# Entry
Amino acid sequence: MTNPTRGLLLLSPCTSVVSLAAGSDELDCKKGKAAACGFAGRAYIDKGQAGDESAYALARPLLEKGCKGNDGASCDDLGWLYDDGLGMDVDKKNAEHFYSKACDSKFARGCTNAAALYLRGEGVAKDEKKALKLFTRACDGGSLTGCRDLGLMYIDGTGTPKDLKKARELFHKGCDGNNAGSCFDLGVMYANGEGGPVDEKKAAQAYDLGCDGNSWSSCRNLALLYLDGKGVKKDFGEARTLLEKGCEGKHGASCYDLAVMHQNGEGTPKDKDMAKKFFKVSCELKYENACKYAK
# Structure
């Protein structure tokens, strides 16, 4: 069984504002408080994400006002509306404009989002070196996602010479800040001896932190270590629990390995029906290796 392939983590902004707060924030926004405009706008975005798409149109003018007042979070959320076409047509050029304005306002997430557009060449000419600089600004400004994406660029040699040691340091920084994706990548580097010596015990610790943060790939890789007794004491029961968690999170490879455990009677009695069930789930989650066993 092989480790899942790494992929660039693109930011999905978190939502936490309670919509009931929008009213008082809108009043403060009218008084010229830029941050309040951002809070009110984000509350409407939350409402839109919950299914009321008409709320996006209410978010936009509030975010525009907040952004004009140099509130970086407002600029970043306004960029998100343009980037994903929330309540409007997709406009990557305007998305870059507002993400960059957020970045210039020292809002680190804006730097991360602008970097992703430059890396993909969306709305702007593709520019890997500029993406590298923006991810660096993001990481230095406290965006742990920016640190992780910067680490991936150093691993692949994108916009910069490959530097596995630097990548490991960046993933350490992200993982120390509880960025689950960084913990996964750090675990992979320890397991494979990339950027430093192999250390299966530290790989297990990193995967454990990633799994706690709902990185299903981390749960799966930690389960494989328990199956093989690498870095941890061999424990089929713990491996099965981790794979069940990953499968519940709709991670196809975890469902596949869980099916194999049921098929082979590892940590559980042999059960061909349960094995077939999880092979089928894995196949439905587009894990192709499972499909031939799901029939």
User: Anything to note?
Assistant: Residues 34-49 form the longest helix (16 residues).
